[in-house]
Amino acid sequence: MVDKIEHCREALGLGSTSEVVRLAISKFNFDRFKPTEKPHRQISVRLTSDMRTMLKRQARTKDSSIGELLRVAIDALADNSNNGKKKAVKKSKR
Hints:
Elements: H1 2-12, H2 17-27, H3 49-62, H4 66-81
Helix pairs in contact: 1-2, 1-4, 2-4, 3-4
């Protein structure tokens, strides 16, 4: 998962892991998600309160975890970034 996040960060010109996760969440269609079980590694990211609220609601609706929703959103973002999508402008770190 961390490798996929890093790939997306570089491919999309994003400045942080948190930016990748926020983008993945905003672009993913949670209505079509069906949960599965897989082993995973825990990471920490910063989310807006609106995103966290939406993820909690989706997790309850889908009888899933927030982590699983994040994984499928990042997987979808990684798949899309491999399909020749135009790179985003890289933000400079302050």
